[in-house]
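Journal club prep — side note

Before the paper discussion, L.F. wants everyone to see what a predicted structure for a comparable chain looks like in token form. Sequence:
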Amino acid sequence: MLPPPRLVTLDDAPALARLLRENREFLAPFEPHREESYYTDAGQRAVLEEALAGHAAGTGLPCVVLAPSGEVAGRITLSGIVRGPLQSAVLGYWVARQHTRRGLASAAVAHVLRTAFGELGLHRVEAGTLVDNVASQAVLARNGFQRYGLAPRYLRIAGRWQDHVLFQVLDERPEALST
């Protein structure tokens, strides 16, 4: 059984920095260009401080993906949580190359969706992938996400503006539909 993701802590900075350095080439096609400091313990600590501030403000849920051994294997985050009539958030995640194709991403997404639609009371979660990122699209499909559009030149990834396929999943639980 896979451990569920857990909220990040500042103590995760060294493990995340190490994973990001080790997987820099693997993740490069899917990530924006980053300053060198991003790949350091101090850089990741700053990223986590900002993420935890967003969590405290209710606008994010930053978690680490855990391997079966309990070691940090990646990140999964709900960001841009919007309340009011929208009740929505954006999902993003990555898993280190050595932990891919083991179901970690799919299980982490499933867990975060349960939290989003349960504890957080959200109605909608969206995600975007590069057009050719079929692995991530499969993770989303396994978790009930539906493609709803294409965003031309949506994000600057790997140094250029790239198109993204947009997905969403709605809380379809009977109790959610009646509120």
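L.F.'s comment for the group: The domain at 6-177 is CATH 3.40.630.30 (Aminopeptidase). Keep this in mind when we get to the figures.
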